[in-house]
Amino acid sequence: MSQQNPRKIAILTQVFRLGYGVGVVIATQAQHLRALGYEVHIFALHTDGARDWEGIPVWQLWRTPTALRAILRAGGFNVVIAHTPPFFRLLPQFHDFAHTIAYEHGSPPPEFFVDAQLRAQELANMDSDVYARVDRVVAISEFMRRYINWPDSVVIYNGADHLRARTAQVQATPNLPEQPLRILCVARFGEHEFLYKGMDLLQQLRGDLPAESFEIRVVGRGGPEQVKTLQQSGMVVLPNVPDDVLAQEYRDCHALVSFSRWEGFNLPLVEAGIWAKAALALDIGAHAEVTPLCFAKYEDLRDFLLQSTAQSLAEAGQKTADFVARFTWAQNVEALVDVLNSVERSVAKTGFLGGNLLARGALQLHFGAFELLELARRIRLWWRGRRWWRRN
């Protein structure tokens, strides 16, 4: 990878917390970019409260601030990457001082959620309001490129080797018991995700598999009501676990299943593959791009498990491992740096307004009162941005 001048990157996301796939992507990319000499800051509406993640600054925005443009400009950011709503629609506001990238992980169809109307409004007219007005659009899979209907988007697949790298102390277990076969599901299963993540089908699977031959374990982020519901269905549930526990669950399972009804990628499938575990999923969304073990319908996946042995699942696990070996974060970040290089312009974007205020003011005198008012507004926003950085 060629060397380039370091830049200051602001990453914008709605949620930066344990248990969210977008957060995993952002955190891992930020680590790699910092190692390449970039300065990276993460801005999120919802965090776990930490002010940094392994040395990378994390700023919690209590709401989507009207002064965000001023904050980023005063902070000297010249690259802004938005990963989620509501920040996509703000990107065009930053275009005069920063390169802007919409990094699309996708949003499930609104009908899966109780606030369907609001979600539909957020997704409406993204092509004209956002994609056509930013420097580049990135999609995390070919499915996502088709789903957002923006053919010029650049596909950058997520990596798969992050968890194994961060939990090197969790050693592989050479032999698993023949029975019961341990089936793992890693997913968010909170109230709003329960349906689209297919947890109802997982409950059905628990009823269809003999209890003496199969154990089903669920790991992920969910509320106490959903934990209770899944436990009453006969599953072992481990909510909100740290990385080392998650790695142990991958290590000690025979197979991972996903009944998700929509996915732009699905990190648990490739995480399981890195541990050489069979990753089974319904053939929807991007699943066929990230695992070789896709099934047209629930009954096909269930019957595959009913006919499986520890040996056959181990062989399927090796097949999955071979398939996901191409998904590395080194390749992911190399592709992202290629995107950053491709949006370079002949005039560098400095992200700083204050240095030339007097010169700008002198020029504005030629254009009348309206232009002077606009200059005053921009000075006020610049000052608000400077004050924000001093307070934080």
* CATH class assignment of the largest domain: Alpha Beta
Helix content: 25-40%
Total domain count: 3
CATH H-level name of the largest domain... which superfamily? Glycogen Phosphorylase B
CATH architecture label of the largest domain: 3-Layer(aba) Sandwich
What structural class do helix, strand and pairing data support? Answer: alpha/beta
The secondary-structure element order is EHEEEHEEHHEHEHEHEHEHEHEHEHHHHH
Q: Estimate the mean pLDDT confidence.
A: 87
Task: Please describe the biggest sheet, giving its number of strands, its sense, and whether it closes into a barrel.
Answer: 8 strands, mixed
Alpha-carbon distance between the termini? Answer: 35 Å
Total strand count, please? 14
Whole-angstrom Rg: 23 Å
Poorly predicted spans: 1-6, 353-371
Q: How large a portion of the residues is in β-strands, by DSSP E?
A: 15-25%
Q: What's the arrangement of strands in the largest beta sheet?
A: 3-4-2-1-5-6-7-8
Overall spatial form: elongated
Could you please say which CATH topology of the largest domain applies here? Rossmann fold
- Number of helical runs? 16
